[in-house]
Amino acid sequence: MAKLKASIIGGSGYAGGEVARILLLHPQVELAQVTSESHVGEYLYNVHPNLRGRTKVQFTTPDQIVACDVLFLALPHGEAQKKIEHYASLASRIVDLSADFRLHDMGAYKKWYGEEHHAPNWVSKFVYGLPELHRAEMKEAKYISGVGCNATASNLALLPLVRANLLDTSRPIVVDIKVGSSEGGNSPSLASHHPERSGSVRTFSAVGHRHTGEVEQELGLQNVHLSITSIEMVRGVLATAHCFLKSGTAEKDLWRAYRGAYKEEPFVRIVKDKTGIYRYPEPKILSGSNYADVGFEYDEATCRLVSLCAIDNLMKGAAGSAVQAMNLMCGFEETMGLEFAGLHPI
Length: 346
Hints:
The protein is α/β, with parallel strands linked by helices. 28% of the residues lie in helices and 22% in strands. Helix 1 (14-25) packs across helix 11 and helix 7 packs parallel to helix 9.
């Protein structure tokens, strides 16, 4: 059986590089072309050295892309929407890793991104790209959006509580999110300069983070607040959601909710052990994997819950979910190409 041909628009960034890495190992996919405006003619491994010896694909310009089966768009925010008609002419299936088609309400899009959308008629064609929320729709979809890494960790931390109707939504839900430096992309800046970045614990989005819009949309919450802090870590997101539950909620209700939400999910693991240094979710051990580890701790006397979710921001928060979505869209085994379990120690 012929392999599916997949190409990547914008493959020199971290997320595009991760898509390439996964597709090169995918048994049903041939990585056909990868574009970059600044590295035309160079081999992929000149930019992504971990791919040395794995491919001879060279970067091309976007106008050299030919028709393929699946097109991954790994462009900066705002770029995919400007040329979506053209990209759709190149492939019958598209996975866009950017934020361009995540929010379905154009008022919410303008609120969070501060501008009008360039292709509003296309937004409804895209399925939001988190399989744990939209698996059935993805199997019928032709166009799938990316996911925000901070939104993914927040959504997976809160999803069991929403589905089981356990949250006291009259009280604020505050999600404190710690992130690694790769979340800032590969374009150098003063903030990423080593003397400024090393050793820092730097809050850069205390209120009003854009990914809040995705959490509101996907979970139907209106009283949720995200705060983002960068720490000394390259990959990873840890979302710590502080919330209150309805009076009378017992810990057994929480176990029922978390197991009900995730017992059939191939990439979500419940991590809640009584002993050991890894008794709560820890992003460090998820590096390179598509897993999301979810856990919780509950104070039954006050109804206060702390729900945690750890992911690799470049995998479950970007490229991994994108390939998982492609697998569903193309009828492949959902876990195909995504079996890597992470490393320990690292």
